[in-house]
């Protein structure tokens, strides 16, 4: 029996739970110096003077660096070559600051405390410039952030045609905001860099991929990638925000070279909220039309994407929104457009879901809005419009090719699990009797894309002299349980016991190549690369086993349940992996790179049940049923864990979390007192229903699951809250739905 598909307990957890795991900030290189930054208090200003003499002579200070010093290594490379040179950013600001929190001066000292103290002695003079905070105003170019570029609009994309509403019997339209969020990983950003005597740069980082960071550092410092070693120890969460190593950390090698000692940087929590790139930030104008009997016949989504002060990957994420515009529905008459604009706020990057939740929020909200308008049950409208079960690729109006799916089944299973009809009856009863709290039921049928920009991923499996397997993966985990997952896949293919499989990742000297752990791509690429490597190793080992068994290789088979090779029909005479390891002269090692023809499309239905107190506006999420289909599951328990974390972040977007700036670009939510990170106390126990429709895209049949919980949950909770107050006349709300907003909406609807 295969180990795959079983709830194997995570091997990573004892270390995480007992404190023996090692994060970057736990590492204390001998002789290290510590970096702290002076950051801009202005959202947009010209730097007219920097006075650093006092800081330079402060106790314990080894060096003080300005943008002029950092100019020696040029500008930070753009994330994508398509981004304009005029929008490249310096490692630390040289002449203009473009967001509150942008680093202006780097102070390196014997201890972190001394570095922070010396930062206080730096005097920076600023000539304020008008800040551009509202993305819609940014698009009007009244103030241009990068004069050399001439406009704040980095890109405009649109579908070949706009939706035609001329035949619609009913049309609804809303402005929907996917607010800025911060990833809030438990571990903030941290890095250490030093140079070896033979001129190699060694850089420790807490990011979502070792090799991309290596290549970035090689480009910055003019080195051969082989002369850079990047090591990623345990990472306490990334959520997309750590998909890039950012300029303030990339400069560590510069400081280290200048001072001849290792330099370490570990940002504070406040710095993390203020200066680690944020996510989402999409303003949407959505319009849906159809027939009075519930058929959706037209849908148009127009988007303004806030990309913050400098372009990062978020500058292209509206493209992901476009690909997923029509969601799970059969709507051939659809259109999309997006303007991505720079603003004077922290740059925007990926955040769990990265462009796809935005699409789902828009269409799922509009389906409910449409259902309310025609007075039909929102689940019924979904059944009328869902793409029927398909096993051959289904092409949407946006040209996106979905692999396989059974969306109506997911909706049925979720409604059954939640007891939808009973809930609606209870809701009707409470409404009729005027009972509080108000009951709200929210449905969301989602489909998303994982591995949406397929990139090859590496894996190798080596037989060690003692018969254990050394498995190397190009993927770097940040909490997903890769070690457990990879050991399961290789155990399945080789029959070597799970416990005898050692996993290596996150070190560019140990693993030749690798990519980023983003887009929930790892199982379907890194996992498949390991499955293929395991199979290839078995093939090689079979030849050695044949020698030991004095048989022809073609007659030798592997019994994966025992991990023993034997001659067909003679199971008692065996060759074990240890015997093979002892018998071969060369190391047996096989590797594979796997990309997959296209992305895969996890999907499902989430149903949220909320109670709203009409007096206080307080919302309690009382139930969340998630019926998710991520293809074949490697480890249902880990997949469920991913869904749990995802749902929590999705519910948080609907109810609590939101980055806010004032009109001058000051961050108003700079701590967890104001930025309301969700906790277990605000969440019920989720109810999970597994569906497994294997994809043909890869031999494991697996789709990604790392982000789908978020994507399904946001609109489910959002719709549930609107549903709770719909009978009072409220048609639409904006996330996060605060108690104040709810009270105001209820009052306004009753006026
Ligand atoms: N899995 C499975 N069967 C599948 C797919 C996945 O059993 N068919 C399980 C595996 O155990 C695997 C895990 O789910 O280890 C996640 O796999 P996958 O969906 O391939 O996603 P990735 O490993 O590529 O993780 C990336 C994804 C993203 S993009 C974000 S953002 C995110 C997420 O994972 N950030 C996380 N989950 C996170 N979880 C933690 N704890 N911390 C983060 O920062």
Write the layout of secondary structure elements.
Elements: H1 13-18, E1 33-39, E2 45-51, H2 53-56, E3 61-66, H3 67-70, E4 96-97, E5 103-109, H4 112-119, E6 123-128, H5 135-138, E7 153-158, E8 170-181, E9 190-195, E10 201-205, H6 210-221, E11 228-231, H7 247-250, H8 252-259, E12 263-266, H9 269-275, E13 279-290, E14 296-306, H10 317-323, E15 334-341, H11 356-374, H12 378-385, E16 394-395, E17 401-402, H13 407-418, H14 420-433, E18 438-447, E19 457-463, E20 469-473, H15 482-494, E21 501-504, H16 522-549, E22 556-559, E23 564-567, E24 570-576, H17 577-583, E25 589-594, E26 603-612, E27 619-629, H18 636-655, E28 687-691, H19 708-726, H20 739-750
Parallel strand pairs: 1-12, 10-11, 14-15, 20-21, 27-28
Antiparallel strand pairs: 1-5, 2-4, 2-6, 3-5, 7-15, 8-13, 9-10, 9-12, 13-14, 16-17, 18-26, 19-20, 19-25, 22-23, 23-24, 26-27
Helix pairs in contact: 10-11, 11-19, 15-16, 16-17, 18-19
Bound molecules: pterin cytosine dinucleotide.
The site of pterin cytosine dinucleotide (MCN) has 34 residues, from α15, α16 and α18.
């Amino acid at each position: 029996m295969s180990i795959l598909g079983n709830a194997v307990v995570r091997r990573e957890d004892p270390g995480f739970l007992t404190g023996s795991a090692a994060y970057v900030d736990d590492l204390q290189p001998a002789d290290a110096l510590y970096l702290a930054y002076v950051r801009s208090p202005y959202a947009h200003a010209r730097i007219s003077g920097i006075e650093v003499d006092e800081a330079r002579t402060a106790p314990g200070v080894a060096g003080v660096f300005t943008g002029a010093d950092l100019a020696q290594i040029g500008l930070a490379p753009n994330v994508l070559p398509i981004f304009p040179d005029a929008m490249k950013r310096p490692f630390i600001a040289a002449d203009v600051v473009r967001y509150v929190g942008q680093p202006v001066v780097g102070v390196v000292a014997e201890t972190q405390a001394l570095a922070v103290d010396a930062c206080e002695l730096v005097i920076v003079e600023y000539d304020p410039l008008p800040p551009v905070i509202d993305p819609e105003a940014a698009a009007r170019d009244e103030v241009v952030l990068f004069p050399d570029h001439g406009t704040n609009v980095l890109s405009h994309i649109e579908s070949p045609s706009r939706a035609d509403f001329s035949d619609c019997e009913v049309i609804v339209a809303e402005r929907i905001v996917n607010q800025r969020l911060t990833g809030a990983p438990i571990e903030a950003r941290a890095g250490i860099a030093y140079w070896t005597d033979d001129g190699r740069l060694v850089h420790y980082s807490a990011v979502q991929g070792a090799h991309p960071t290596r290549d970035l550092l090689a480009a910055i410092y003019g080195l051969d990638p082989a002369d850079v070693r990047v090591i990623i120890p345990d990472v306490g969460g990334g959520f997309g925000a750590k998909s890039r190593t950012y300029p303030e950390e990339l400069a560590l090698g510069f400081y280290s070279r200048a001072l001849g000692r290792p330099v370490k940087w570990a940002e504070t929590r406040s710095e993390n909220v203020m200066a680690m790139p944020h996510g989402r930030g999409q303003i949407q104008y959505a319009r849906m039309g159809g027939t009075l009997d519930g058929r959706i016949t037209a849908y148009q989504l127009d988007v303004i994407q806030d990309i913050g002060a400098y372009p990062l990957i978020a500058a292209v994420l509206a493209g992901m929104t476009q690909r997923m515009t029509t969601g799970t529905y059969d709507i051939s008459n659809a259109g999309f457009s997006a303007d991505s604009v720079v603003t004077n706020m922290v740059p925007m990057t990926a955040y769990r879901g990265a462009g796809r939740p935005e699409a789902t929020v828009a269409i799922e909200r509009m389906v409910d809005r449409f259902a309310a308008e025609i007075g039909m049950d929102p689940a019924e409208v979904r059944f009328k419009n869902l793409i029927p079960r398909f096993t051959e690729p289904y092409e949407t109006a946006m040209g996106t090719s979905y692999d396989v799916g059974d969306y109506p089944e997911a909706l049925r299973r979720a409604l059954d699990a939640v007891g939808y009809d009973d809930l609606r009856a209870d809701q009707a009863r409470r409404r009729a009797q005027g009972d509080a709290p108000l009951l709200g039921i929210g449905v969301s049928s989602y489909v998303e894309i994982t591995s949406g920009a397929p990139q090859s991923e590496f894996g190798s499996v080596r037989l060690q002299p003692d018969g254990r397997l050394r498995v190397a993966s190009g993927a770097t985990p940040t909490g997903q349980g890769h070690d457990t997952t990879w050991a399961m896949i290789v155990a399945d293919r080789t029959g070597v016991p799970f416990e005898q499989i050692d996993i290596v990742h996150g070190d560019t000297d140990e693993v030749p190549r690798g990519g980023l752990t983003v887009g929930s791509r790892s199982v379907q690429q890194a996992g498949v690369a390991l499955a293929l490597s395991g199979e290839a190793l078995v093939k090689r080992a079979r030849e050695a086993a044949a020698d030991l068994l004095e048989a022809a290789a073609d007659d030798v088979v592997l019994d994966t349940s025992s991990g023993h090779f034997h001659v067909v029909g003679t199971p008692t005479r065996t060759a074990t992996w240890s015997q093979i390891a002892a018998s071969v002269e060369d190391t047996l090692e096989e590797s594979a790179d796997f990309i997959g023809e296209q992305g895969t499309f996890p999907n499902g239905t989430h149903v949220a049940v909320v109670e709203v107190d009409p007096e206080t506006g307080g919302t309690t999420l009382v139930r969340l049923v998630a019926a998710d289909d991520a293809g074949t599951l490697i480890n249902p328990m880990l997949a469920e864990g991913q869904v749990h974390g995802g749902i929590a972040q999705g519910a948080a977007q609907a109810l609590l979390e939101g980055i806010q700036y004032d009109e001058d670009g000051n961050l108003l939510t700079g701590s967890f007192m104001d930025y309301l990170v969700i906790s277990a106390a605000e969440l019920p126990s989720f109810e999970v229903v597994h569906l497994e429709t294997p994809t043909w895209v890869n031999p494991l049949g697996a789709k990604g699951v790392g982000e789908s919980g978020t994507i399904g949950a946001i609109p489910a909770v959002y719709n549930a809250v609107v549903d709770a107050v719909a009978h009072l006349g409220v048609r639409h709300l904006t996330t996060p739905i605060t108690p104040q907003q709810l009270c105001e909406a209820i009052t306004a609807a009753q006026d």
